[in-house]
């Protein structure tokens, strides 16, 4: 039976239909009041006595009136709300900009400190890749060991092991194979592995009591030797006084060629020195240590900070860095510049533009 027929049959069953005529309005209202979930309408029909019935009629009409009144208030308040939008330009504090040269120190200045380390690094590269040696006497003397022997390779040995063998490593210094049962840590490589050998290269690090050792291995031998070089490089430079390291790095006058901010010329006096252990002398523009924090009201590269840098690629350390350029990070004045983690690398002989968008959120007070 169709849904419409069911409703008609239910009405005919509950209503006293007189002959062929349809039920009257009074009968329909009585049927609705008896079957609705609205308690007031039902009480009007089933209540005994006129007083009770009048009270229930009054309560029901009052409730219906209150409902319509609340609906009218909601509609009126919805259409009477005014929205005001103001668009205006204001000056914003310009962020701090930290610039670092990828090469931390001038190679001509630190070369004497790193002579022994570089000598052992060349030997390690020859052992791994078999670079041909120059037959000249000067080259043979440069590659010969010093009187004390290879101290860096003994301190942190370079290892190589075949991917087919488990637990057996070969020492770069002695060439002997031995079993290794310590922890093996796989590190990602920046360079592609183009060497034909199946050996995986790494270095071993042990605790002070040499009871716990770990083997850091890389799929690329170049990356392994470079990380091994950086490890000893950081230890050597940590023993150099800070003032001497600042003098060995680039000065602001050497790094900055031209500087413009908001169309006005600026110079090294607008930059604050910040010495980074891995990037040497870095310089921060618009730092909080300055007398006043610069602000700007216009967007675009023409009204921001424009600098031309001289990275002095001739002074780059070939064992430490594999690329040339500078690193830049934009940050707040009260933030530490994590240049190594989130800095943007700028390539040489290229014009690079960095844009920032400021979003601020303000919470209203109660309610």
UniProtKB/TrEMBL annotation:
Q: Which domain of life is it from?
A: Eukaryota
GO molecular function terms attached to this record: ligand-gated sodium channel activity
- UniProt KW DNA repair keyword: no
Give any Gene Ontology cellular component: sodium channel complex
Against Pfam families, the record matches this protein to: ASC
Q: What is its main location?
A: membrane
UniProt catalytic activity: Na(+)(in) = Na(+)(out)
Instruction: List where in the cell it is found.
Output: Apical cell membrane
Q: Which InterPro entries match?
A: ENaC, ENaC_chordates
Q: What does the UniProt record say this protein does?
A: This is one of the three pore-forming subunits of the heterotrimeric epithelial sodium channel (ENaC), a critical regulator of sodium balance and fluid homeostasis. ENaC operates in epithelial tissues, where it mediates the electrodiffusion of sodium ions from extracellular fluid through the apical membrane of cells, with water following osmotically. It plays a key role in maintaining sodium homeostasis through electrogenic sodium reabsorption in the kidneys. Additionally, ENaC is essential for airway surface liquid homeostasis, which is crucial for proper mucus clearance.
Q: What is this protein called?
A: Epithelial sodium channel subunit gamma
Q: Which organism is it from?
A: Neovison vison (American mink)
Phylogenetic placement of the source organism: Eukaryota, Metazoa, Chordata, Craniata, Vertebrata
